[in-house]
Amino acid sequence: MILLTYDISDDKLRTKFSKFLEKYGFRLQFSVFKIKNSRRVLDVIKLEIEKRFAKKFTNTDSIYIFEICEGCEKKTTKFGFAKHEDEDVVYFD
């Protein structure tokens, strides 16, 4: 699993960046995305950040990418809505 968190001051750039990340994962919190881990996906994300976004960042913007191993992911404690994230949901009409 990859956790990617960002702090981008420009509203327009931040919106473009979040839409870009939606192609690869889902939003956990406003500026935190969970992305299924694969070397190829991570390489694509890093390349796109370097090519499309990095030159537009200011000295107050930041992005952190955390690679979480499967063992560490199993040790994660979740509360609230987050604890239902890994469960299958069934809807009946």
TrEMBL record:
State the Gene Ontology terms under molecular function: hydrolase activity; metal ion binding; RNA endonuclease activity
Co-factor requirement: Mg(2+)
Q: What is the purpose of this protein?
A: CRISPR (clustered regularly interspaced short palindromic repeat), is an adaptive immune system that provides protection against mobile genetic elements (viruses, transposable elements and conjugative plasmids). CRISPR clusters contain sequences complementary to antecedent mobile elements and target invading nucleic acids. CRISPR clusters are transcribed and processed into CRISPR RNA (crRNA). Functions as a ssRNA-specific endoribonuclease. Involved in the integration of spacer DNA into the CRISPR cassette.
Q: What is this protein called?
A: CRISPR-associated endoribonuclease Cas2
Q: Which organism is it from?
A: Candidatus Dojkabacteria bacterium
Q: What is known about its subunit structure? A: Homodimer, forms a heterotetramer with a Cas1 homodimer.
HAMAP family documented for this protein: Cas2
Alphabetical list of Pfam families matching this protein: CRISPR_Cas2
Q: What class of enzyme is it?
A: hydrolase
EC number per UniProt: 3.1.-.-
Q: Where does Mg(2+) bind?
A: D7
Q: Which family does it belong to?
A: Belongs to the CRISPR-associated endoribonuclease Cas2 protein family.
Keyword Nuclease listed: yes
Q: Which domain of life is it from?
A: Bacteria
Record key words, sorted: Antiviral defense, Endonuclease, Hydrolase, Magnesium, Metal-binding, Nuclease
Q: Name one GO biological process term.
A: defense response to virus
